[in-house]
Write a structure and sequence with these properties.
Strand order of the largest sheet: 3-2-1-4-5-6-7-8
Largest sheet: 8 strands, mixed
Radius of gyration: 17 Å
Number of helices: 10
Helix content: 25-40%
Distance between the termini: 42 Å
Structural class: alpha/beta
Length: 255
Amino acid sequence: MATLGFIGAGAIGTTLARLAIAADFDVVLANSRGPQTLAATVERLGARARAATPEEAARAGDQVVVSIPLAAYRQLPAAALEGKVVLDASNYYASRDGHLPALDAGELTTSELVQQHLGGATLVKAFNNLSAHHITALARPAGAADRTALPIAGDDPQAKAAADELISRLGFDTVDAGPLAESWRFEPETDAYTAPYCADPDALWAAWTQLAEALRTGTPPQAYAPDPGAPLPADRLRTLLAGASRKLTADRVIA
């Protein structure tokens, strides 16, 4: 039976774990605080889920999903991930992760940085450009007329093929955005990031602007009602990726 490992058990990781179980995977989840802190999560997911350390999740997974704050990327267990296909859902926010000059300057993408640390693994950028509630709302069976597409990027064709097969089982088509060096095309605030999966993209941009102001002034942010989601077909996603402009830290509404 195939097993999917998860390093990072926040909203993205647990949502994908739920879809993986429905697609007939066993799942092994890990976070930075220890397996004991995931007892309630595992109980909700059921008998096909178990909690572990990051090293154990890395070794157990036929493929491994990483969804952690980028500031913690050096804590990923490189030796345990050697030889694995790793789906990297990380995003860079300097206000959260601290400034990383190579990313601020656009010398590297986030996944190129993570790949440098995980030299023996093969990275595929995926699942970083939509919210957890949109993953739940938009997953569809293969062949569905309203199937949504997600971008992937990677340097190894076989790894991208494996990621495509996995993502299809979880409920989405994929569009190949190129190598890791091109994965900026679906990093934060680009045309393919979050907004095109929204039923009301303007409301999302307004919420981001309000949040940026709240962060600047130290005031509590306004509540944002979760958007119900809108399917994004592959052809539209290809257009968005092809026309994307790179958004460096200094160009973003939320840095």
